[in-house]
Amino acid sequence: MTTALFNRTPLLTEGNPELKRREIRDYFHTTQDRYEQLFETLKNDEAWYRKPIPLRHPLIFYYGHTATFFINKLVLAGLIDQRINPRFESMFAIGVDEMSWDDLNEANYDWPTVSEVRAYRAEMRRMVDGLIESLPLTLPIGWGSSWWPILMGIEHERIHLETSSVLIRQHDLKYIQPHPAWQPCRKSGETPKNTLVNIPSGRVKLGKQGDPTYGWDNEYGRHEADVPAFQAARHLTSNGEFLAFVENGGYADDTLWEEEGRAWKEFAKTQHPTFWVREGGAWKLRLMTEEVAMPWDWPVEVNYHEAKAFCNWKQRETGLPTRLPTEDQWVRLYDFAGLREVPHDQPANANLHLDHYASSCPVTEFRHGELFDAVGNVWQWTETPIYPFESFKVHPLYDDFTTPTFDDRHNLFKGGAWVSCGNEALKSARYAFRRHFFQHAGFRYVVSDAPVTVHASHYETDKLLSEYAEFHYGDTYFDVPNFPKALSELAINAMHGRPARKALDLGCAAGRATFELAKHFEHVTGIDFSARFIGLGVQLAEQGVLHYTLADEGELVFYQERRLAGLGLDDVRGKVEFWQGDACNLKPHFTGYDLILAANLIDRLYSPKKFLATVHERLNPGGILLIASPYTWLTEHTPREEWIGGFKQAGENLTTLDGLKAILGAHFRLIEDPFEMPFVIRETRRKFQHTLSEVTIWEKTG
Amino acid sequence: MTTALFNRTPLLTEGNPELKRREIRDYFHTTQDRYEQLFETLKNDEAWYRKPIPLRHPLIFYYGHTATFFINKLVLAGLIDQRINPRFESMFAIGVDEMSWDDLNEANYDWPTVSEVRAYRAEMRRMVDGLIESLPLTLPIGWGSSWWPILMGIEHERIHLETSSVLIRQHDLKYIQPHPAWQPCRKSGETPKNTLVNIPSGRVKLGKQGDPTYGWDNEYGRHEADVPAFQAARHLTSNGEFLAFVENGGYADDTLWEEEGRAWKEFAKTQHPTFWVREGGAWKLRLMTEEVAMPWDWPVEVNYHEAKAFCNWKQRETGLPTRLPTEDQWVRLYDFAGLREVPHDQPANANLHLDHYASSCPVTEFRHGELFDAVGNVWQWTETPIYPFESFKVHPLYDDFTTPTFDDRHNLFKGGAWVSCGNEALKSARYAFRRHFFQHAGFRYVVSDAPVTVHASHYETDKLLSEYAEFHYGDTYFDVPNFPKALSELAINAMHGRPARKALDLGCAAGRATFELAKHFEHVTGIDFSARFIGLGVQLAEQGVLHYTLADEGELVFYQERRLAGLGLDDVRGKVEFWQGDACNLKPHFTGYDLILAANLIDRLYSPKKFLATVHERLNPGGILLIASPYTWLTEHTPREEWIGGFKQAGENLTTLDGLKAILGAHFRLIEDPFEMPFVIRETRRKFQHTLSEVTIWEKTG
Q: In this structure, is the dihedral angle defined by the CA atoms of residues A201, A207, A213 and A217, taken in order, positive or negative?
């Protein structure tokens, strides 16, 4: 074991700037040193160049990668303008690690020698040292600081310290040698009896606001929740406890597995935890540098699917609603256990931050109140797919750290393992992996009736839906006011004195006007022909938030989050409903409205005549119909014979306005002169549709 | 014959307003009366309902049509808001006469009775009388006046007075009866000998500017030309003179006919002029209400094709370059003959305006200086397809009077026939028909070496080309300055002090920047991949004018004319050239430039890398390269692997600007910070593309 404590992630808000400069340099150096020390466990040259598992690069890549990451971020931040070695930096740029995708380009890599990479790392270190020496430093250090990419590089290397330790653990033992700095725990014993602890209800607050340390983008923002009372296992599930599941045929019993887990299990032909080794009649456990007799009281290491199948089995055995904790429940456990961050000046009271072992240890060793291992030992899988907290923003220097994982397929794990250091060891850390991946991760089961909330995490990437999300809820361009909002205000003004019970937003698209109208009306129905558009409104009504990507140029995107609350519309969520429907053939019960808004609708209908000729049937006497349209007639939407204007009739120009007057005249009067209202739809960072929609406001007269 | 002179078209600039009101009322009434009198030549009911020729409506339509025309224009002008009879007005709206198209919708018309239509006409007359009584009248009366649609209705009826007289002449004689008010000339004699008159050169000025009378849109604007000396036949070609061509086998000899004429002749199986009737061994001539023994000294009546074939025959016989006059030559003949407009208070010295006969008369009867029938008797075909004079504008109340004939397939005829009255009888009148149509029209041949200029008349209707014509030469929208002009000014500013011999506008599209750069450079080459775009620049360079339609809404369009002169670019026409070419594979001789402008080009190339890597070879040392692009990368234009930015490379965002710097860095330096320049492309009246193009300016360093 190292004798000194492995440096903690620096506090960025306080202290003397010159001391802080020295602290960051030390943090950099010890991280570098510890990372290089990890590779000293490789026994021979082949160990560097053989892939530990098929879907990962060999370890030589990871040795170079953390240095290249520094260079890339420093170039991006404009702190350096010369690369060290463009060839290396192209080769070492894209890892395929557990943070990222699970496909590997099988290009024929011509890896450099270890000593070349070592020299490259040394050069990077000199370059960063130069920056640390010379950059002006003022506290606090925030997202925009020149120091942020340096801290990012260090924390990134600490992540790889852990993930590379997993790869070494997955490498054939013939390539690995023990190392004095990487000594496992030598204690083990019988399977401890696990029991349930009652966790009282409590409010949790998540989100790294005003936190004094470095964080990744997904940690920032706000999330609060009231967690009802539940029960939690006192200990992490041990190898011994898990053995009952294995011996009970748990891996063979498909009914215990979730669909995705079953597919993985069949593909992987798995019959026991990945680090378990069957030798003769006995189980052994693969550690980083050796195999040991199975320590039954250490935490079992599994992926989410195995943990989940265990819980399902446990539920079957006990009749209790057993599952993994949600992220909120995990935080409640942390709070309940009365934990604090790892102290800077003494060892953690947890198997964490390399303060004790280079392996797990018994689940009975670190007590935290009524629980054990509330943090540390192994990561704890949760039921929660990672999602952005409110006011999530992407850090511009690393815009794909988190966003590709917002897909409801990456679950969070919490608490850190024995090797989790720096940012990873913090309560606020939020790492998420595909549910079938392996890390030094296990689980604690809970007994809870509370449903698992899947938070909105998906970033809408469909071009049209994203454009409309931005059109309705996003920024304004060319100083053109938000169109559905402006129309809604017009409509509300036109109502003066009239009843305001029910409004219909027909052709509501992403639904902004539906919400806006609900400020004035008791109830607003949004209807659109496209169920995909409706989906945006439904998500906002249910979750209050939309995420989508905005095209920058080419394939590059920006990430956007929009919340009803930020638009002053959170209060009206209960007053809206959205339905898929056809304006030309509306179901009979959509009637009795005081207002019908038809924004950019009529020139997209297959039969505007039919719609216009019958729309009065849906309105109350004296009700208002507001139509806005650029009259962009296209045969792909509206057959030529269904156009209501925009052609010559009997030799004379018949405008759409003429056609509206002719058709609506029987039941409506125009109560204001028509006028044009502009709108802008953003296609890319530099390309926009800029359109004028003619607004006519009609009162139902008969 | 009528005893009083048929009213002349009123002067609209002078006189007492109340007397003018009375003059217009009289003009309206006498026109109405004379038109109704024409239909008194119909012998029976069947005469009204049988089509005289297959491609025209029966005469009942034309009886109602001129009344409906009044109603339609008055509605359009907002002078009345109630129609008289919507059913009639739908039925009588669209004629298929010689002014319009040659296809007839064979719908089953359920025509009303003659007395119903008569009553309808009377009601229209009362309505217009009411307007004439009550509308405020101030002089002059111009295009925007409320009186204009009334005058338009009257002049329109006078046109139909003539065209209906042709239909009656084409009707079977069994339907037609003589009428005292429609008595033909009774004089006829031997074929007069035709001789050539020397016409000295002279300048002609066309265009109804400041003219005191009503005119159709095509008469306005400016056109001036120097007409070189030529010879003209003293007389119109008589039936007798034309007989020689007929008897010489002219109709059978394909070599005498132009291609279009040959096709018509074969389709129509024509062997002699259309109103000639062969009876036994003798030729007779069909007049409006009777057939007479062939008056050999009357002008032959033919279409353009027959006239042209005669000229070709004449040329073969005489060896002299014989053809029809151009419009300019016809005006020169008018001026040479010393003619003036028909006087208001005495009969015309010409067989014109119904002042003498309801038929032609001998070509020897009306002498005009050394010529006979410089005007009157029959219309005279010209070689000139109708085209818009400079500053032509469409009248908003009748936007398809002329524009559909701007197709190089409608030739002008000039001078009027015996029945041409009002506007038709004026020197400025410009009527054009398809070359195979028949009116009371013949010709005078000329002997002239001067080539026939076909003026730019075609209105570009292709959506993309029209959009680009407007983008480059049209109005600005949303206060965004003209983009190619603004870029050219930037480029010229960037040149300060550098040589300015040759510039290259690569991806010139419609060519505006090519012209703009020629203000500063000695010579500018515009190159575009699209020959269709190049066509716009070529036409401007050659003719100085562009015509195109702009989408309004649906199928409705506006008509636009743009002239280099109006943009201050007429002086540089000689300094530009346009070529079709491929920026990725440019011919070797396109080199030695001081400036290369690449506006909105690179993201439309199939290999921008190749272009950018070699463009320095085309520039002189120290030369300037200006690139502007919104970086809208699309695989339909540029395969993904050819993009120079807009994607992640080695895990990091690579912008197009990064890519430009990387590729151009070897030979260029960026001499200014990049900035964005907006442009707007108008798609319809209300729909626009509004885009930002990033501008980078590079100096060639090596």
A: positive
Q: Chain A residues with CB inside 8 Å of B556's CB?
A: 646-648, 653, 655
For chain B, which residues score pLDDT lower than 70? Answer: 1-3, 95-109
Q: How far apart are CA A322 and CA A314, in angstroms?
A: 7
**pLDDT at A99 > cutoff 50:** no
Residue B81 distance to chain A (closest CA, Å): 12
Paired sense of beta strands B371-372 and B367-368, if any: antiparallel
Q: Is the pLDDT of residue A272 over 50?
A: yes
Predicted TM-score (pTM) above 0.90: no
In angstroms, what separates the C-alpha of B88 from chain A's closest C-alpha?
Answer: 11
Q: Which residues contact B292 (CB under 8 A, 6 or more apart)?
A: B184, B188, B284, B285
Q: How far is it, in rounded angstroms, from Cα B377 to Cα B381? A: 13
Task: Give the SS3 label for residue B121.
Answer: helix
**B643 CA: distance to closest CA in chain A (Å):** 8
CB contact under 8 A, A686 and B691: yes
Q: Which residues of A touch B631 (CB under 8 A)?
A: 553-554, 684, 686
Q: The tokens of A595 are what?
A: 């207002």
Q: How far apart are CA A9 and CA A20, in angstroms?
A: 12
User: ∠B219-B222-B226 over CA atoms, to 5°?
Assistant: 115
Residue A317 tokens, joined = 């055995």
> In angstroms, rounded to a whole number, what is the distance separating the alpha carbons of residues B545 and B348?
38
> Which run of H or E residues covers position A322?
strand A322-323
Strands (E), A145-237: 196-199, 202-206, 223-227, 230-233
Residue whose pair of structure tokens reads 């540029």 in the numeric block:
B638
Residues B283-325: pLDDT tens digits? 999 999 999 999 999 999 999 999 999 999 999 999 999 999 9
pLDDT, one tens digit per residue, over A583-639 is 998 999 999 999 999 999 999 999 999 999 999 999 999 999 999 999 999 988 999
Question: What percent helix, strand, coil does chain A show, rounded to 5?
Answer: 35, 20, 45
Q: Which two tokens stand for residue B66?
A: 């001129």
Q: Which of A99-103, A314-318, A494-498, A680-684 has the lowest mean pLDDT?
A: A99-103
d(C-alpha A143, C-alpha A147), whole Å: 9
Q: Chain B: residue nearest A401 by CA?
A: B651
The amino acid that residue B234 corresponds to is R
Which of the 8 DSSP states describes residue A132? H
Q: Do B631 and A72 touch (CB under 8 A)?
A: no
ipTM metric:
0.73
Note the pLDDT of residue B3: 56
Which residue, among B298, B354, B323, has the nearest Cα to B179 in the 3D structure?
B354
Residues B53-92: tens digit of each pLDDT: 887 889 999 999 999 999 999 998 999 988 999 889 888 8
Interface test with A, best of B100, B555, B683 (most A CBs within 10 A): B555
Distance CA A422, CA A157 (A): 10
Taking only the tens place, the pLDDT of each residue in A517-568 is: 999 999 999 999 888 898 899 999 998 999 898 999 999 988 888 999 999 9
pLDDT at A110: 83
Residues of B in contact with A653 (CB under 8 A): 76, 399, 556
Residues 6+ apart with CB under 8 A from B508: B514, B526, B527, B528, B533, B534, B537, B578
Chain A residues with CB-CB distance to B646 below 8 A: 552-556
Which pair of structure tokens corresponds to residue B409? 């397939």
**pLDDT the model gives residue B104:** 43
SS3 B230: strand
Beta-sheet strands, E only, within B374-463: 379-385, 410-414, 431-434, 441-442, 446-447
The Cα B504–Cα B583 span in angstroms is 11
The pLDDT assigned to B678 comes to 98
DSSP designation for A299: B
